[in-house]
Design brief:
The structure is a single chain. This protein has one helix spanning 2-28, and strands at 69-71, 77-83, 89-93, 98-102. It is of the alpha+beta class and 106 residues long. The chain has a domain at 32-102. The protein has a four-stranded antiparallel beta sheet, with no helix packed on it. The protein is globular. The N and C termini lie far apart (47 Å).
Length: 106
């Protein structure tokens, strides 16, 4: 009986951990790169989209006071951030290569 109770506790613990992990994975889908909202294949995330283009004046480091420009530790322009309609943000280097994203808040 004591061994059966110990086995039951282990099974219960494993089931609880797997359910908690599944919940964490479900919450993490918002930031997953395989999520279409975050995919580089989504037009909204493409540098070919004018909103994300380095040729767009809104993304230019030459625009005085541009709040989209990302700077390195020395203050040099290193890229730009483009807000998405869903509340997320795409990050690009100065050549227009997408370097990352911040998913929309849930």
């Amino acid at each position: 009986m004591k061994k059966a109770f110990g086995t039951l506790r282990v099974v219960t613990l494993l089931c609880g951990l797997s359910c908690a992990a599944a919940g964490a994975l479900a919450n993490d889908w918002n930031s997953n790169p395989n999520n279409w909202r975050n995919s580089e294949n989504n037009w909204e995330n493409s540098s070919n989209n004018w909103n994300n283009s380095p040729n767009n004046w809104d993304n230019s480091p030459n625009r005085y006071g541009n709040e989209r420009i990302l700077r390195d530790a020395e203050g040099n322009a290193a890229g730009y951030a483009v807000p998405k309609d869903d509340g997320g943000v795409n990050f690009f280097d100065l050549q227009g290569n997408r370097k990352g994203y911040l998913p929309a808040p849930q």
